[in-house]
Specification:
Blueprint lengths: L2 H22 L2 E4 L3 E7 L2 E2 L7 E4 L6 E7 L3 E5 L1 E3 L5 E3 L1 H4 E3 L5 E12 L2 H6 L4 H18 L3 H5 L3 H19 L3 E12 L3 H73 L1 H16 L7 E3 L6 E3 L1 H10 L8 H11 L1
Antiparallel strand pairs: 1-4, 2-3, 2-5, 6-10, 7-8, 9-10, 10-11, 12-13
């Protein structure tokens, strides 16, 4: 085989490879969970988020980088293996609190890629940078917190402060990542005996909160009952007031009528009022007729006579005339 023929075969082979490569690298697909960036001679285009079949210039003119749109989890301080076993990294989680105590703190950071261009070109390893920023944020917050807050009721505030600080750092680094949530998994002491003591403190805090809630419930119940009693007393007082006003109006009307009668017949009206008053004041009184002429006072006990009359039964009496008639008849 001549040299010219060999060169021709090599040239045709290279051209064939280039054509085949151009055909297979001129199209790509984007899934629902993906976003893509087309890079032309090192310059990135705008992100492509619509799924489907896409076309581009063949390699090496253009190439495609695909990134996930899903939410990722950064496990700081531990690693959960596929078999469910948890591996702890005490070196990362050991921190000093603001009152010079040591705690072990691990957490989970939920994040996602929101700017693919910055994610690809603004940092060599964005995941490692996120890990370092998480470590710096949680250590800063724990360093400004007391151990009681870190182990008991201050966890929510630590989560919030860590999340705010981490978001600020990530925005400053501009690596195309958005932090969604920061969740503390566990905050504990490295010593088992001290950990047991703080567990007892935590239980006491929970018991205190339970008692406070029960006391608030009892207070609210008593306040509701007192409000109900107050409303009932006010309602009864209002009804009594209305009744007294109406009764007074009736008494005034009755007095006006009596006064009109008194103007017409003063003596008769006066005697009637006296009798009615005596009857009302002394409903069960005994009546006596008395005569006082300045000498010996005499009275006639009508009530006693009437009682005696009712107590003595009637008897049969015979007169002298009846006796004479019976004797004469006998003769």
């Amino acid at each position: 085989m001549s040299t010219k023929r060999l060169l021709t075969i090599i040239t045709m082979s290279v051209i064939g490879i280039i054509l085949i490569s151009a055909v297979f690298t001129s199209w790509y697909t984007v899934d629902e969970s993906e976003q893509a960036i087309v890079i032309t001679f090192g310059e990135a285009s705008e992100p492509i988020v619509d799924p489907g079949l896409k076309f581009k210039m063949p390699w090496p003119i253009q190439k495609v980088e695909k990134l996930s749109k899903e939410t990722f989890s950064l496990q700081f301080g531990y690693n959960q293996k596929a078999n469910g076993e948890i591996e702890s990294f005490d070196k990362d989680t050991k921190m000093i609190t603001g009152d010079d105590n040591i705690v072990l703190t691990d957490l989970v950071v939920q994040w996602k890629i929101t700017d693919p261009k910055s994610y690809l070109f603004n940092a060599e390893n964005p995941r490692e940078l996120l890990h370092d920023a998480t470590s710096a944020s949680i250590r800063s917050v724990i360093g400004n917190s007391k151990i009681d807050d870190a182990l008991t009721s201050g966890k929510a505030q630590i989560e919030s402060d860590t999340s705010d600080l981490l978001r600020t750092l990530i925005e400053k680094y501009d690596i195309g990542i958005t932090v969604l949530t920061v969740k503390l998994q566990d905050v504990e002491l490295p010593n088992a005996e001290v950990r047991s003591a703080f567990t007892a403190v935590t239980d006491a805090e929970e018991t205190k909160n339970t008692k406070v809630n029960q006391a608030d419930k009892y207070k609210n119940q008593k306040l509701s009952e007192a409000e109900g009693e107050k409303d009932a007393i006010i309602s009864n007082a209002t009804g009594y007031k209305t009744a007294r006003i109406e009764q007074a109006k009736g008494d005034v009307a009755l007095f006006n009528k009596l006064y009109a009668e008194y103007q017409n017949n003063k003596e008769i009206t006066r005697q009637r009022l006296v009798m009615e008053t005596l009857d009302a004041v002394l409903p069960n009184a005994n009546l006596y007729i008395m005569n006082d002429d300045g000498g010996t006072m005499k009275y006639l006990p009508l009530q006693s006579l009437e009682s005696t009359k009712q107590a003595v039964p009637p008897t049969d009496t015979k007169t002298e005339e009846d006796t004479e008639k019976e004797e004469g008849g006998g003769k």
